[in-house]
Amino acid sequence: MLPTDWGPPSTGTLARVHDTRAAQFWDREHAVSKSLGGPEHAPKGSRADKIEFDMRRYIWDFVAIYPEGSATPSFTGAPIVSVVSDVYEEMARVARD
């Protein structure tokens, strides 16, 4: 979330994530963050959360990995760029289980 994020990301930006299991959202009204109760109520993974910045009012640039059939994420982290290798590791672990 940047002050310059006035519109949804371009097709090129969205194309950076190739995994069909991934979902990306443009959420102008911050409905997902509000529905989760904001940063203080962000989902917590069973592995140590890797949240490397203060989100203050909204949950943003955040990844949560939910194993199939689970209502609880196995991993959460932010910003995504800082946890990419952890995401790949967790996705591989979840796929094996």
Write the layout of secondary structure elements.
Blueprint: H1 11-14, H2 31-36, E1 50-51, E2 63-65, E3 75-78, H3 80-96
At a glance:
With 97 residues, this protein is α+β, with helices and mostly antiparallel strands. Helices cover 28% and strands 9% of the residues.
Provide the β-strand percentage band. 5-15%
Major sheet: size, sense and barrel closure? 3 strands, mixed
SSE topology string: HHEEEH
Overall average pLDDT: 85
Q: Could you give the order of strands across the largest sheet? A: 1-3-2
How many structural domains are formed by the residues?
1
Helical residues, percent:
25-40%
Number of helices: 3
How far is the N terminus from the C terminus? 34 Å
Radius of gyration: 14 Å
Shape: globular
Q: Which regions have little confidence, pLDDT < 50, spanning 5+ residues? A: none
Estimated structural class: alpha+beta
Q: What is the β-strand count?
A: 3
